[in-house]
Amino acid sequence: MLLLIFLFGLRLLLNATFSRAAPPSSQDRCRCLFGDACWPSTDDFASLQKQLSQPLLHPLPPASPCYPISHPSGDCDEVHQQWTNASWRAHQPGAMQGENFETFVFSNGTTSACFMDTSLGVPCTQGSVPVIGVDARDDVDLQAAVRFAASHNLRLVVKGTGHDLSGRSTARGSFIIWTHNMKNITFHDTFTPQGAPQSDAHDHAITLGSGVQWQEAYEAVTAKNRVLVGGLSAGGTVGAAGGWVLGGGHSVLSPSFGLGVDNALQFTMISSNGTRYVANAYQYANLFFALRGGGGGTYGVVTSVTYQTHPNLPLIAAAFATSTNSTTPNAPLETLFSDLIHLTPELSDAGWSGFFSLAPDPTTGALGLSGFFVMLNGTLDRANEDLGRFFSTAQSLANASDNALTVQTSFITPVDSFFIWYQNFFPQTSSAGSNGAIGSWLLPRDVIEQDPDRVVKTLLPLTILSIS
Ligand SMILES: Cc1cc2nc3c(=O)[nH]c(=O)nc-3n(C[C@H](O)[C@H](O)[C@H](O)COP(=O)(O)OP(=O)(O)OC[C@H]3O[C@@H](n4cnc5c(N)ncnc54)[C@H](O)[C@@H]3O)c2cc1C
């Protein structure tokens, strides 16, 4: 068992000074950026256009409809309404899930950005949003795009949804390959990887184009009464065949069926010279190995991934939420957090997965501990034994705490399938569009088993973290 810990940091960019900065320069950089003398000419782009199925993209920052301030170019009300909507952002080539990644901060502290808040009086500039690129729909589009980028030495970014937690799917002065519209989904009653013997045929596999997002993938497998190891986010907006699987692919179903990479049977990929590879355990096996965890964009542009699906089993769902009257960890919260950390190896052995978070209330700043858990094909008796005890502890601590700790909710319930759980129990509130930076650590099981109190003492003061 490994625990994945996410730490969230809020970074306010508004204190920086603003500038209508000059276009980026590639002096001292190895790639050709927009504004440099080496940037391709209009004729170069016209000849690229002839090879593409779609018009060239000219991505804009998501707040651009609000500008110029005197005569907004688009529907600024919509921008305000949708700003935190993860789907709205994922559908735009110029938007990231985290607003800060759209902003560029120069080494002297000045900023190029396009703020939703027009009252700042700052003109909208391109920031770190790519200036031009390809709305890829097939291999031919991708091959033309990568060859063009390579021949002009452009800074290339590949983007499906903009969920990258370090902002790597956007870059100032870059050329973008947007895979978002590569939405093909093919179900295979039987799938044999290319080059494999017939004896390695897999029943019930699914091939997803690299623009497919988890909501779409879950709907497709549910229609076949199957389940797919996949990620969680409000609205199912994370890419199902992009950065998620290339980085490993964590899922609440992983204790039963492995990580995303354990379920990948085959990748198709376009390399930087435009060569198309079909990689699996039988051909280009090294590339297959590398793609399963080597990171987004490291080896080429993935065009599709074929996954093993699994039987659609019922599960037990559990969740709890507590709040405190304090902005720093108080005694009952510390006891409860410690209890949960001590319990984690046992929960893992019993087949539970899920997330728990320590976070301040967005309005009051008071800390709270909350979590949700899933046990595939589990029993209510077992669930009550494992988690019922913890929920009772929470209630007892709250009862004795004189309002220092409050239990807002706690429940354990059977659910017919993963998709029903995902739609009804997983929080669907959008949390996109803010300034944030997230760090994560893999915590080996023995660290928790050997010194759980030290884990508690280390993590608790951080006051904003999520453990999965
Ligand atoms: C709200 C939220 C929820 C999340 N939930 C989970 C979760 O449950 N489990 C989990 O494991 N992770 C989760 N993540 C992390 C997420 O899996 C990674 O950020 C992942 O890289 C996102 O991939 P993407 O393709 O959706 O995003 P993008 O931002 O489009 O791409 C991410 C990276 O992959 C590259 N890339 C994208 N498409 C391709 C392609 N076709 N070929 C080559 N490179 C490509 C990009 O260049 C970039 O480097 C979550 C992140 C967020 C913001």
TrEMBL record:
Keyword DNA damage in record: no
InterPro entries per UniProt: FAD-bd_PCMH, FAD-bd_PCMH-like_sf, FAD-bd_PCMH_sub2, FAD-linked_Oxidoreductases_BP, Oxid_FAD_bind_N, Oxy_OxRdtase_FAD_BS
PROSITE patterns registered for this protein in UniProt: FAD_PCMH (PS51387), OX2_COVAL_FAD (PS00862)
Residues in FAD-binding PCMH-type domain copies: 126-312
SUPFAM superfamilies linked: FAD-binding/transporter-associated domain-like (SSF56176)
GO-annotated molecular function: FAD binding; oxidoreductase activity
Keywords: Oxidoreductase, Signal
A Pfam family recorded for this sequence: FAD_binding_4
Signal peptide: 1-21
Family the UniProt entry places it in: Belongs to the oxygen-dependent FAD-linked oxidoreductase family.
Name of the protein described by the UniProt record: FAD-binding PCMH-type domain-containing protein
Naturally occurring in which organism (per UniProt): Pycnoporus cinnabarinus
